[in-house]
């Protein structure tokens, strides 16, 4: 349906309608702008949220639990999701809002041009109408003047008193007026014909053509709105596959949570390598009574009950909080802080092994970097030797020497740490073998030394408490089984810093330990360093380690502050 034929007389209405169309287009553009600002703020907030909850520590310090790793994967997927929201906002800004604002400016210019053409055509028609109207009014005046002249002429012509000159003058005046009226009539007829022609052109050619252009302009505006509506939706649709992948990644991360794996990591992270404590022993307080009794019996406990329990009654466990002597309960109590040592000997065996292995891996990486740097310097030196104009080969020699020195230092460190690692692994395998032997060959008495090894000393009256850690090995650790013998072969023996009395008997079957009998007095030459063992010396000069909780220690005043 054409606006030119149907709305030929609605120029002002079309003027208002086209203005409304532009206003509506700009209103939609404003809506798109606010929408993309929401997307930008949403993406910004998502990225801020991801940054807030992302680990701030290095990956080596982060927990390796599957639940943590899955959460970090979800954060990564959410960060990608935020990137897609930013992409949506960017596409809306360029393909929707940007095009709408540009099209709005073009639309305003085109509308102005069409309306100016319509106004010009209307003004030209109005001018033709004025000319025609003026000629009409002039013709009307001339006709009235001619009528007056005719009445005057007829009156004088019938008047007998009128002179001939007056009649002749009136006649001439009538003739002039009649001639002017005829000319005005012709002019009016010409202007009327011209106006009718122009009016026909105006309403049949000019206005339909202008209105047709205005109609096409308005229809293009409507089409443009439809296209931008589609672009608005397509901006969302294009990112749906990637957003779906992000959501699928979150689901995969959620399914990757493995409670058994996390439990195994907990064991791997905190396993100390120590054996669990033994059973709580029976404390026989009637020992002193049995020794002083007149009947000569060993104790008030029936012999059958003692034999049924597997021999003499066990001694109090120094690790138990109710023991007579002060001890260090690491299992449920707070482990005392030990100074960090280079060989990690202050850590439990399993943790020490892991830390040493980690350090060895890091040293190997550094060594590989130094080797690569050395190779690169050697290649550069060869190039300089073949092409002296490129550089002086001797200038690289200090750097090569420094790199080789660093490599030697790293190899030395690796060897030292591997020695410590082999020592830890050797001790763990030895302890595992002893523990297996204890499980398969346990005697009725069932007593164990501080290192978990079995003893057959049935003459001992009490059960030797079960220990979890070997005595510390002075100096740098090594895997030599005679390490304690080498230590005690020093020419200058350690000075005596106190004495102690054995509260319980101890067989001291393992390397570096010292056997003692109950109530035996020993010299103290080295205090307990926090591992539950004290270094002592017998009257005959034999030295070794005894459990700190098995003896009552008295230090000299001069050595208590050391």
Automatic annotation (TrEMBL):
SMART domains: FCH (SM00055), SH3 (SM00326). Residues 277-325, 384-498 are annotated as: Disordered. Residues 303-320, 408-441, 448-463 have a biased composition (Basic and acidic residues). Residues 1-262 form the F-BAR domain. InterPro entries: AH/BAR_dom_sf (IPR027267), F_BAR_dom (IPR031160), FCH_dom (IPR001060), HR1_CIP4_FNBP1L (IPR057871), HR1_rho-bd (IPR011072), HR1_TOCA (IPR057870), SH3-like_dom_sf (IPR036028), SH3_domain (IPR001452). Residues 483-493 have a biased composition (Acidic residues). It holds the Pfam family SH3_9. Its main location: membrane. Residues 495-556 form the SH3 domain. It is found in: Cell membrane; Cytoplasm, Cell cortex; Cytoplasm, Cytoskeleton. Residues 285-301, 392-404 have a biased composition (Polar residues). GO terms for biological process: endocytosis; signal transduction. Residues 346-423 form the REM-1 domain. GO terms for molecular function: lipid binding. Keywords: Cell membrane, Coiled coil, Cytoplasm, Cytoskeleton, Endocytosis, Lipid-binding, Membrane, SH3 domain. One of its GO terms (cellular component) is cell cortex. Belongs to the FNBP1 family. This is Formin binding protein 1-like.
């Amino acid at each position: 349906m054409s606006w030119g034929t149907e709305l030929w007389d609605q120029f002002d209405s079309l003027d208002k309608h086209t203005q409304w169309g532009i206003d509506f287009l700009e209103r939609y553009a404003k809506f798109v702008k606010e929408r993309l600002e929401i997307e930008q703020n949403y993406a910004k907030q998502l990225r801020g949220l991801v940054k807030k909850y992302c680990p701030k520590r290095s990956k080596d310090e982060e927990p390796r639990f599957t639940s943590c790793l899955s959460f970090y994967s979800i954060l990564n997927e959410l960060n990608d999701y935020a990137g897609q929201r930013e992409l949506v906002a960017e596409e809306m800004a360029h393909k929707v809002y940007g095009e709408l604002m540009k099209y709005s400016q073009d639309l305003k210019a085109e509308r102005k041009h069409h309306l100016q053409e319509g106004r010009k055509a209307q003004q030209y028609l109005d001018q033709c109408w004025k000319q025609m109207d003026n000629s009409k009014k002039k013709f009307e005046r001339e006709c009235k003047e001619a009528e007056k002249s005719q009445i005057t002429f007829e009156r004088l012509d019938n008047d007998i008193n009128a002179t001939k000159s007056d009649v002749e003058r009136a006649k001439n005046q009538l003739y002039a007026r009649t001639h002017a009226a005829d000319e005005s009539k012709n002019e009016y007829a010409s202007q009327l014909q011209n106006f009718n022609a122009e009016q026909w052109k105006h309403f049949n050619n000019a206005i339909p053509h202008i209105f047709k252009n205005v109609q096409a302009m308005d229809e293009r505006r409507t089409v443009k709105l439809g296209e931008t509506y589609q672009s608005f939706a397509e901006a969302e649709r294009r990112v749906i596959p990637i957003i779906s992948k992000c959501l699928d990644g979150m689901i995969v991360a959620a399914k990757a949570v493995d409670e058994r794996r996390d439990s195994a990591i907990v064991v791997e992270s905190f396993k100390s390598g120590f054996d669990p404590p033994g059973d709580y022993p029976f404390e026989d307080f009637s020992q002193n009574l049995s020794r002083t009794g007149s009947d000569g019996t060993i104790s008030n406990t029936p012999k059958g009950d003692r034999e049924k329990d597997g021999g003499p009654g066990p001694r109090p466990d120094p690790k138990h909080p109710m023991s007579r002597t002060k001890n260090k309960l690491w299992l449920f109590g707070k482990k005392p802080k030990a100074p960090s040592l280079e060989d990690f000997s202050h850590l439990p065996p399993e943790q020490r092994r892991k830390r040493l292995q980690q350090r060895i891996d890091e040293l190997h990486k550094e060594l590989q970097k130094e080797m690569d740097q050395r190779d690169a310097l050697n290649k550069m030196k060869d190039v300089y030797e073949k092409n002296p104009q490129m550089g002086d080969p001797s200038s690289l020699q200090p750097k090569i020497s420094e790199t080789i020195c660093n490599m030697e230092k790293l190899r030395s460190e690796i060897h030292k740490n591997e020695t410590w690692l082999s020592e830890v692994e050797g001790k763990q395998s030895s302890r595992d073998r002893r523990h297996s032997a204890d499980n398969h060959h346990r005697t009725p008495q069932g007593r164990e030394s501080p290192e978990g090894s079995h003893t057959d000393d049935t003459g001992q009256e009490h059960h030797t408490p079960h220990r979890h850690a070997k005595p510390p090995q002075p100096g740098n650790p090594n895997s030599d089984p005679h390490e304690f013998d080498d230590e005690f072969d020093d020419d200058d023996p350690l000075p005596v810093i106190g004495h102690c009395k054995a509260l319980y008997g101890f067989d001291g079957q393992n390397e570096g330990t010292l056997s003692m009998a109950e109530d035996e007095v020993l010299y103290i030459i080295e205090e307990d360093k926090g591992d539950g063992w004290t270094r002592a010396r017998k009257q005959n000069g034999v030295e070794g380690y005894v459990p700190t909780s098995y003896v009552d220690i008295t230090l000299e005043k001069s050595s208590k502050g050391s």
